[in-house]
Amino acid sequence: MVEKIIEELRKVLGTEYSLRSEVAHRYNWLDLQLIIEKKESGKHFILSLNEYLITLEGKSMSLDMVVDALKEKILQLKFPKELENVTNMRQKKFILANVQYQVVGTANNFYYLQDLVKKPFLDLTVVYRVFVGSESSYLLKTEFLKQAGISMEELDNAAYQNGIRTGHSMVPIERFLDPESDEKCGIYIFKNKSWSYGANILLFPDYLMQCANRLHDDIILLPSSIHECVGISYTYSKVIGTEALQALVKDINERVVGPEDILSGSIYMYKRLDNEVVLIS
User: What is the pTM assigned to this prediction?
Assistant: First the structure.
């Protein structure tokens, strides 16, 4: 069906565009992609075909409707100015100024992780995401790191310092349910200020110590997605029980977040005495 879509697109787009398909290993899933090159500029674009294939399979859209929708999207594509200079965004100075930690699940992601710069963390893997402007980013590959002449020590230090500058926050969950509520249920959202890949808060024990001191307790951290964690005090967690917390994480992963945003099915704990995050379940 993918080749049929491409065949029909070639008919309506003409010779100005070069089209091909590719399967990409994404975080927790496979992405069927359409690679588009505008021949005069040599610029490439990538569109995911998964959504369109699902609509075709469910017969909510015909082939002609899918082709028309893709044609319209392709004609509207504009290459971000920040990405025009690919050489610049892979230079040492640029990478070190814009790299941030991202934590991802290790299980079932062998192909996704194999070419990336990474390090282990508990049952997770830390990768390095380089931000290009406000809306674009890329994951740092081992070959890019070597080409830029960056050591792992330099990279890790830059990611940590950039994370501190971005900032993190511990927000009572009531603020999201009812901004005017004065009730306190003891559940918090731990995230970074940009709401993007904020589960990396697990890698910032000094900030977690500040939060733990506010709660006067250790903190149980539930990985609600790659973008944030849900946290409660250790004392409160004993009232709820480990099995109930494990069931909550499972429910979030199955019913709330998409496969691309799932971090882990585990439960973590920040221990004040040791100033570290540990895996507890």
Answer: 0.74
